[in-house]
Amino acid sequence: MVEDPDAALFLKVAQGDESAFATLFDRHQQSIVRFAYRYVGSRARAEELAQDIFVKLFKNAKSYRPDAKFKTFMFRVATNHCLNELRRPFQHAETAMSEPPDTQEAPERPDAALDGVRLEQAVHAALGGMSERERAAFCMCRFEGLPYRDIAEALDASEAAVKSLIHRATLQVMKQVELLKAGLQPARSEA
Fold first, then answer.
1. If you average pLDDT over residues 7-20, what whole number do you get?
2. Last residue within a domain, chosen from 48, 83, 99
3. What is the model's pTM?
């Protein structure tokens, strides 16, 4: 098994090395912000959640055991934190994933392929209709590039369950893209 350089850095964090933590933060902060954004639909709130996640990682560094890759461990913490955020009493279900991506109105070009803005709107709508576990698995796989094995560890699930979650989530995205291709607005589903 290849040694995980991030795990080695995090073990240094457990020994009090703040520069090792700064390195990990710089390396993974944007990834965690993107991941959190896909849960809460607000860039500002996602940045706050990312800060909270890194504080949680720092505070719990001494209990870390490198049984899995650091990135897997980090996404497990991020997933749990984001799920807890969605379950908080003041977090209304209708606000989660209801804020559209930061975009301007896309120009209409019927002869052109789907542009990035409209595609992002379709994906955003699909994410809002996914279960929490589908969203987590889909985001880790499609946006962060984690392999099924690592996602399974992060979600405490089997690889078969992760494949099923990702498959169902992908079908939802495809449905939203088809609606968009047909000239319909992506459907806003409640998670």
1. 94
2. 99
3. 0.74
